[in-house]
Write a structure and sequence with these properties.
This protein is an alpha+beta fold and 286 residues long. The chain is built from ten helices and eleven strands.
Length: 286
């Protein structure tokens, strides 16, 4: 642990930490489990050269999601421009009972709602900035704040082919027809791939690393499917029982996966540009 961080934690908790262990699993920053002198453990995340609001945006999202009284989030113990310190949550193993509880919890989180499509402040998704300036409809928000910025960035980096750009543009032109029934803004995690679902000891799941905003609840569900979540069918079935999904939601999965695929095209290369084009075509054909 860096001496400056050790001193910072000592000032926060009254005594220097006794030990720390690096944790893997992320490509955005460094994370560690830190043991305090009083026997408690905390989770500490750092990122060299991070923007000044990087960790405050994450902390703000965790608090907002946690206030929904649905899926739990770790308590924020301290945040500044250098690090984020969170309550340690003991990991468990994926299980059907935990998946059932997560389906109900996620439905409750979404149902807590949001004031708008977007958020009062911009945020981050991974290392990328995330524009959140509100718009009055989800169609406008998804097009202007989620698809168009990342389509431009992927194109500028040469990570998406012209034919795939055209497919995405065709989808944007038809987005109102493809979006399904109008819904009120849901309280979204916003980056809900399987790595941001923490399976806990005690048969429950917590939400971590959010890109929180008001959006369409099908976006979170589609993201869960993008990289594979254990017991996903159970999660979706229980969610649908708790908060019925609109007809045709399964056909709209590629539409809602388009944003994260474009983000990955920006950050991870042309293979995701191809995947984005395929998702656009699938959404158009649905």
């Amino acid at each position: 642990m860096q001496p400056g961080l050790r001193a910072r934690l000592a000032g926060l908790f009254g005594e220097e930490p006794t030990s720390s262990a690096a944790l893997g699993g992320g490509d955005v920053g460094d994370a560690a489990r830190v043991e305090l002198a009083d026997g408690r453990s905390v989770f500490v995340k750092t990122r060299a050269g991070s923007p000044a609001d990087f960790f405050t945006a994450e902390a703000r999202g965790l608090v907002w999601l946690g206030a929904a009284d649905g899926a739990p989030t770790p308590d924020v113990l301290n945040v500044d421009d250098v690090c984020l310190v969170l309550q340690w949550l003991e990991p468990g193993r994926p299980s059907r009972p935990a998946a059932e509880r997560f389906g109900r919890d996620l439905a409750a989180t979404h149902a807590a709602g949001a004031d708008c499509f977007g958020a009062e402040q911009d945020g981050y998704i991974g290392r990328q900035s995330l524009p959140n300036d509100p718009l009055s409809t989800w169609v406008d928000f998804y097009a202007q704040r989620r698809i168009e910025p990342y389509l431009r960035a992927a194109h500028d980096r040469g990570n998406i082919e012209p034919a795939d750009v055209r497919a995405v543009q065709e989808l944007l032109a038809r987005l109102s027809d493809l979006a399904g029934p109008v819904e009120a803004p849901a309280r979204l995690h916003g980056d809900l791939w399987s790595g941001n679902v923490l399976w806990l000891a005690g048969q429950r799941c917590a939400l971590i690393d959010p890109a929180a905003h008001g959006g369409h609840r099908e976006t979170d569900l589609a993201m869960l499917a993008l990289f594979g979540l254990p017991h996903l069918d159970t999660v979706l079935a229980v969610y649908d029982e708790a908060a019925s999904l609109a007809d045709g939601w399964r056909r709209r999965v590629p539409l809602h996966q388009l944003h994260p695929l474009l983000v990955h095209a920006v950050t991870h290369g042309p293979s995701y540009g191809v995947a984005a084009g395929s998702a656009a075509r699938a959404a158009l054909a649905a």
